[in-house]
Amino acid sequence: MARTTKPEKRQKTIPYNFGDKHKAYIRKSQDCMINVAEGAVRAGKTVDNVLAFCHELKTTKDKIHLASASTLGNAKIILGDCNGFGIEHFFRGQCRWGKYKGNEALIIKGKDTGFKTRIVIFSGAMLASSYKSIRGNSYGMWIGTEINLHHKSFVQEAFNRSIAADKRKIWWDLNPDNPKSWIYTEYIDKYQQDAADCKFLGGYNYAHFTIDDNINISDQRKAEVKSQYDPTSIWYKRDILG
């Protein structure tokens, strides 16, 4: 007697709730190769990028993709779990954690991907030697959180590893850093200027968010958080104003 398999059942849906500014950023990412969400803490930047990344994973022809943070553990927590909004939750019932060729990976296969296997490799990126973990590999899309905490050599290598991708799309998020940091001078600000001059091909999508743009945090909680800072301090400018 043939063995039958039960259809996938999702026990719950992810309670997405986005403000208009976040919706506009997510929509624009569909048409842009480079997407950067910068701003204050708890502004909702990472959730935007994870959702956009997962949406594209459903249709990409590329099999292997990259997810990075300062450390491997942070990559798995911030992008994989993301307080219930991460990649593993988007593909719940269709994915499992495991190893792929010795790399920490989330292996996805189910209805959302047309039952084709899609693999997301997770990697730490803060060390000078971190680039070695991805050298020689080929990736489709790349999502990087806290991109300013990545080592410069890793960022360079990750770009190189995706050159042959069928769907070459990249998502970054970060809290504000030194305005003269290489992440701005060599990438973010440069891309912004090139896009303004109509010299950036592929599409560039940048958005700045503050805690006030996150409609999931109550006004009372926002006021409580703001009251813990000195309004004249650099930390207020960084964490609250973004």
Topology:
Elements: H1 20-29, E1 34-39, H2 45-57, E2 64-69, H3 72-81, H4 87-90, E3 95-100, E4 103-108, E5 118-124, E6 142-144, H5 152-161, E7 170-174, H6 182-196, E8 204-209, H7 219-227, H8 234-239
Parallel strand pairs: 1-7, 1-8, 2-5, 2-6, 6-7
Antiparallel strand pairs: 3-4, 4-5
Helix pairs in contact: 1-2
Describe this structure in words.
The chain is an alpha/beta fold. The chain has one domain (20-239): 3-Layer(aba) Sandwich (Rossmann fold), CATH 3.40.50.300. It contains eight helices and eight strands; from the N terminus they run H-E-H-E-H-H-E-E-E-E-H-E-H-E-H-H. The chain has helices at residues 20-29, 45-57, 72-81, 87-90, 152-161, 182-196, 219-227, 234-239, and strands at residues 34-39, 64-69, 95-100, 103-108, 118-124, 142-144, 170-174, 204-209. Strands 3-4-5-2-6-7-1-8 form an eight-stranded mixed β-sheet, sandwiched between helices. Helix 1 packs parallel to helix 2 (45-57). It starts with 19 loop residues before the first helix and ends with a helix. Residues 1-8 have low confidence and may be disordered.
